[in-house]
Amino acid sequence: MTESIRKSDEEWKRQLTPEQYAVTRQRGTEPAFSGAYYHHTATGAYHCICCGASLFLSRDKFESGTGWPSFTQPAKADALDTTPDYSHGMTRVEVTCRRCQAHLGHVFGDGPPSTGQRFCINSLALDFRETAGE
Ligand SMILES: [Zn+2]
Questions:
Q1: Active site includes 48?
Q2: What spacing in Å lies between the alpha carbon of 91 and ligand 1's midpoint?
């Protein structure tokens, strides 16, 4: 069971930077190659910038060439929700944090083995925490 976190827009605005708010609460997308974590290779976990839930692990991160941090799978199967997204004239699958409904990015079916999935995630939605000795 994942407890859910709900806050008002005003509360999120106070907690987040304007850029983080635009991505996570207004389903924005950071410019390609602009994110802090695109070339990030340290060992650890990527947490939700809004609620701190552990979302992705560095061992699942790969270089996709797209300009956004990309992962083959979530840290835990129940960390994320996926929803069909037909905005901007495209058919995509939106990825959100299950605990707080933050918009994170999209998932595509053209990832590398073994999952074949590519979670294309905004750096602005993530908070990296290093783990020592792993
Ligand atoms: Zn969250």
A1: no
A2: 24
